[in-house]
Design brief:
about 260 residues, alpha/beta, 2-enoyl-CoA Hydratase, Chain A, domain 1, Lyase 2-enoyl-coa Hydratase, Chain  A, domain 2, 2 domains, 11 helices, 10 strands, about 15% strand, binds 4-(N,N-dimethylamino)cinnamoyl-COA
């Protein structure tokens, strides 16, 4: 697929998707979402891609939300389609069998906060701003915000943000557990790449099992979740990387994982 609204680069096993509509602060219209879904599918299927970073172009915005000019005149049926496309795409990111990092370089409002929450790790620039301002548009979040935000920060703070249309800066996002790290704008991508590299060098099947166990165990009762973990963990013993990891430890050397 030819991309007009995103940039998609792969270098040394690390893919970077850059939302690239800086004049509209990288707002997500359906064309951009379709391109994101396509690029995410490539990342999922291509075994040479080991980790994925999402970021925004320009120095002002990650994603300033769903595109309000496209949404304003939608009929309920088209609104449903637009929302479904967003939910499907974000679920694809969340279920990606390899790690994803959002490098949030500015405004991440509405759909922008929602996209970042579908990633595994969030690094924010000091200039980042988060929020779910949909209520001010007569809407509620439609791409998982009412579900993922309370899971990440707790129900009380999620309600403050969603019901009050409250915007929060990077430091507060860090304090409530919405982001993993706050970084100066100049080092944001460098740090995201460094962490992506670290993850890309981990044994891939083991990473996949860890993510699977966390994602699908989270909403289960503890007994069932522990059983899921048991199965995921024992599967790791089928890999050469598990043998190598333990052998290397006992031989006091660094493991040489081969991804099998
Ligand atoms: N959509 C479209 N254009 C946007 C935009 C957006 N979300 N955000 C910014 N822009 C455009 C502005 O219109 C402006 O365009 P021009 O006037 O230059 O043509 C340009 O980007 C620069 O923006 P500003 O001039 O406003 O820049 P400022 O620095 O003054 O302000 C701002 C930056 C981020 C505070 C402000 O632009 C802003 O408040 N933007 C809107 C933020 C927002 O409300 N985001 C949430 C969108 S709602 C659903 C599906 C999805 C969703 C819900 C339901 N269903 C179908 C049921 C999700 C909803 C959302 O994400």
């Amino acid at each position: 697929m030819e991309y007009k609204n995103i940039l998609f680069n792969v270098e040394d096993g690390i893919a970077v998707i850059t939302f690239n509509r800086p004049k509209a602060l990288n707002a997500m219209n359906s064309e951009t979402l379709t391109e994101l879904r396509d690029a995410a599918t490539v990342c999922k299927k291509d075994d040479s891609i080991k980790a994925l970073i999402l970021t925004g172009s320009g120095d002002k915005a990650f994603v300033a939300g769903a595109d309000i000019s496209e949404m304003q005149s939608l009929c309920p049926m088209d609104a449903h389609k637009f929302m479904e496309l967003g939910q499907e795409t974000l679920r694809l990111l969340e279920e990606m069998p390899k790690p994803t990092i959002a490098a949030i370089n500015g405004f991440a409002l509405g759909g922008g906060t929602e996209i970042s929450m579908a990633c595994d790790i969030r690094f924010a620039s000091e200039t980042a701003v988060f929020g779910q301002p949909e209520i001010l548009l007569g809407l509620i979040p439609g791409w998982g915000g009412t579900q993922r935000l309370p899971r990440l920060v707790g129900m009380g703070i999620a309600k403050e943000i969603i019901l009050g249309g409250v915007q929060i800066k990077a430091q507060r996002a860090y304090e409530i557990g919405l982001v993993n790290k706050v970084l100066p704008p100049a080092t944001l991508m460098e740090e995201a790449r460094k962490f992506a590299r670290k993850l890309a060098d981990m044994p891939p099947f083991t990473l996949k099992m860890a993510k699977y166990s966390i994602n699908y165990g989270y909403d289960l009762a503890l007994d069932n979740a522990n059983k899921l973990e048991l199965e995921c963990c024992s599967q790791c013993f089928s890999t050469q990387d598990q043998k190598e990891g333990m052998k290397a430890f006992l031989e006091k050397r660094k493991p040489n994982f081969i991804g099998r």
